[in-house]
Amino acid sequence: MLGLAGEQVHQSGSGWSPVYADENLAVMSVGFLLNSPDDAVIWRGPKKNTMIKNFLRDVDWGDLEYLVVDTPPGTSDEHLSVVTYLAKAGIDGAVIVTTPQEISLQDVRKEISFCRKVNVPILGVVENMAGFVCPKCKVESAIFPPSTGGAEKMCQDLNLTLLGRIPLDPLIGRCCDEGKNFLDEIPQSRATQALIAAADKIKEACELAKRGTEENTHSHSNGVHY
Fold it and tell me: Which residues are CB-contacts of 93 (< 8 A; sequence separation ≥ 6)?
C-alpha cells in the first residue's frame, strides 16, 4: 500500500531504523522482517508482545508529531499490550474504523467498550466503504446498506464523534495495490477528499486532547483537583 514491498529494516547504534515511505512518514512492520511476503506469522502471545515492545522502544523514530498504531479488529493481546506500553507516554486517543453493516458495528461496539474500560479516549469514528462511487459516472450507490443506521446512528447512541464517511473508490484500491499515493494520483476523488477531511478532524481532536492534558497537569501542579 505504501510502495515499500521488499524493503528491510537496518540496525544502527540508536536502534532499528524505520523505513521511510516519504520524508515525513516512517513505517515499521513485521512484514519487513519476513523472508517472504507469503510467510505466515505464527506467534503466541508472549512473542507478539515482545515484538510490540521492540517496535515502540527499540526503533529510532526520531522526533515525531504523531505515532499511529494500526491494530487488527477486536480486543486481543495486541491492544492490551499497546495500551500498557504507552500508558506512561500518554495516548491521545483511538480512531475507530467501521463499515456500515450491522455485523461490523457489533464488533466495533466491543472495541468502544474496550477503550472505555482501559481509559483510552476515543477521538471518533470513521465509516469506511460508505457507498460506492462509480469511476465513470461518479454516481454513489450503497453497496453495504446501513440496516441499523450505520456509524452515524451508533455515534449518536454512544455519544461519539463521526469523523467522516469514506466511500468506496476502485481507483484508491488500485493505487494501494500499486503502492502509489492516491492523494497525488486522484485528488479529485470524493473518497480522497473525505479522507483528507477526516484526517483534519483527527488532527484537531489530537490537539484538543493534548491541550486538555496540559491544562489538567497545570491544575494539579497548582493544587487544584477535579
Answer: 120, 121, 122, 123, 205, 206, 209
Distances in Å between the Cα of 27 and the Cα atoms of 8, 20, 32, 42, 214 are: 11, 6, 10, 22, 28
Cell matching residue 40:
505466515
Task: Classify each residue of 134-164 as buried b or exposed e, where b means 16 or more C-beta atoms within 10 Å of its C-beta.
Answer: eeeeeeeeeebebeeebbeebbeeeebebbb
C-alpha cell at 85: 506500553
DSSP string, 154-203: HHHHHT--EEEEEEE-HHHHHHHHHT--HHHH-TT-HHHHHHHHHHHHHH
What residues have CB less than 8 Å from 33, skipping those under 6 apart? 9
The residues, ordered by sequence, that sit 6+ positions from 5 with a Cβ below 8 Å of its Cβ are 37, 179
Chain centroid to CA 190? 20
pLDDT in tens, 170-210: 888 899 899 898 888 989 888 899 999 999 999 999 988 77
Q: Which residues of the chain have pLDDT under 50?
A: 220-221, 223-226
Residue 167 in grid coordinates: 466511500
Q: Which three cell numbers stand for residue 146?
A: 446501513
Show Cβ contacts of residue 21 under 8 Å, excluding neighbours closer than 6 positions: 2, 3, 4, 27
- Here the cell at position 186 is 486522484
C-alpha torsion sign, points 11, 15, 16, 19 = negative
Hey, which bits of 18-121 come out as E strands? 19-22, 25-27, 94-98
